[in-house]
Design a protein that fits this description.
- The chain is mostly helical.
- It has one domain (12-210, 223-431).
- The protein contains 18 helices and 2 strands.
- The protein has a two-stranded antiparallel sheet.
- Strand 1 (335-337) and strand 2 (340-342) form a beta hairpin.
- The longest helix has 30 residues, at 344-373.
């Protein structure tokens, strides 16, 4: 009897790689050498490894004091792996070892990172690693120069990698609050977060665009940004500027807070940027207004660009959704962005991703309410709904911001947040795609009829 061949979908590979990386990191963090004062619990080690690999930044223990330099190095390595993507690094390792990368894997990586199934995998992956390391080293150098005597070379590199990978892990117990009014330091972090969040394909295209405009270059050969890059850059700029303006209004207009205008503007800008899944904060999140927290939840849900170190449903999804609803309002058949219409398959993916993400948030909020305060009357738990909603959105969007609920989570609550971080890093669509791989197409059609709606 012939043996049945078991086939594994290529879409399962990134899930398996991330799972193996998380478990391996948790084992290393659980060992005695990772903590200066004895071992942390296994669940805390697993939570930290998940948060680092999924570049989220949510922490149940203080990274700077709970872990030794070795443990911090493990976290840094996990952040770097998560930022660049385990599948990307695995494909690069196979390329360097001159192993054969399958066509399926090549197309999968290409569509995720460059949106081009015909690109040269090896050259592009090497460029990703080199560009990422160069940006991180420049960021670390700038932080070390701007903070003389306040930061060590290791700490500067750790924070630079954490910012570029949109991880949000800090060796300071107060994140970046001690530097909340330092323009130079804030701008370095803002730059690293934005560059890491726009996606590798946009970074490469931006470098080529700058190169074409250097003095001495032929003006006729100057490159123009692609439609995709224009959508990513313009939408990101709108979210950053618009978010900063709204946060400035909700936090500093009409309130008697004695904060200088320049400091208020800087903290508003930083919080708007860090909501793009970065996880750092320069103000106390729990002391912000409810309106500000709701605005930040929206920004965390959107996240960054596809193929970037950021999470969320992505800025392109938001732009397609906006174009879709605008088309319905004006009676247009196509979802037009600029002068180009998004394809029907793209619109369907955007609708599916948004719907499933919202349902996942609602379901997770319900579960966390049961695990974190299901037996507490409403009169005694006011404010918990917003805190849990903020925590869930932060985990699914891999943002890492928290009102302080993370460290107080129960064991089931930590498991729920870990699952949200894992799904958020890989994206809900990849799990749906895995399920669809094993679905059978229905070959029959049923009669249709209209149904009264609304």
């Amino acid at each position: 009897m012939a043996r049945r061949k078991i086939s594994i979908s290529p879409l399962l590979f990134p899930i398996l790689f991330f799972g193996i990386a998380i478990v391996s990191g948790a084992v290393l963090l659980y060992l005695d050498g990772s903590t200066p004062e004895g071992r942390i619990s296994w669940i805390d080690a697993l939570f930290t490894a998940t948060s680092a690999t999924c570049v989220t930044g949510l922490a149940v223990v203080d990274t700077g004091s709970a872990f030794s330099r070795y443990g911090q190095g493990v976290i840094l390595f996990l952040i770097q792996i998560g930022g660049l993507g385990v599948m990307t690094l695995a494909s690069l390792a196979m390329y360097l070892l001159r192993q054969r990368v399958s066509l399926t894997d090549r197309i999968a990586v290409g569509q995720n990172l460059l949106h081009d199934s015909g690109f040269r995998l090896g050259r592009f992956l090497i460029a990703i690693v080199l560009i990422a390391l160069l940006i991180e080293c420049i960021g670390a150098g700038l932080l070390y120069v701007l903070l003389p005597g306040e930061i060590t070379p290791f700490s500067a590199f750790f924070h630079s990698v954490s910012a570029f990978c949109n991880a949000g892990f800090s060796l300071n117990s107060d994140s970046l609050m001690r530097w909340h009014d330092r323009w130079g330091v804030n701008l370095v972090f803002i730059g690293l977060i934005i560059i890491g969040g726009i996606g590798f394909s946009v970074i490469v295209e931006s470098l080529k665009w700058l190169e074409s405009r250097l003095p001495g270059k032929n003006k006729r050969k100057r490159l123009r940004f692609s439609w995709y890059s224009r959508v990513v850059i313009s939408t990101s700029a709108i979210l950053v500027v618009g978010g900063a303006a709204v946060l400035f209004f909700t936090e500093h207009i009409g309130f008697s807070r004695e904060v200088p205008f320049t400091t208020a503007a800087l903290t508003s800008l930083f919080q708007s940027v860090t909501c793009r899944t970065a996880g750092f904060n320069t103000v106390e999140i729990r002391e912000m207004t409810n309106v500000s927290l709701l605005v930040m939840m929206f920004l965390m849900m959107v996240g960054g660009a596809p193929g970037s170190t950021a999470g969320g449903i992505k800025v392109t999804t938001l732009r397609v959704m906006a174009a879709f609803y605008r088309a319905h309002l004006v009676g247009r058949r196509q979802a037009v962005i600029g002068n180009i219409a998004a394809g029907r398959q793209t619109v369907n993916k955007a609708l599916t991703l948004t719907l499933y993400s919202l349902l996942l948030v609602l379901f997770a909020v319900l579960l966390l309410h049961m695990t974190e305060g299901g037996d507490i009357p409403h009169a005694e738990s006011r404010g918990l709904l917003l805190e849990i909603g903020f925590e869930v959105t932060s985990a699914l969007g891999t943002a890492g911001l928290s009102t302080g609920l993370t460290s107080a989570l129960t064991l089931p609550g930590k498991c729920i947040i870990m699952m949200l971080m894992f799904i958020g890093r890989l994206g809900p669509l990849i799990f749906l795609a895995v399920v669809q791989e094993y679905q059978k197409e229905e070959l029959i059609a049923r009669p249709e009829s209209d149904l009264l709606i609304g």
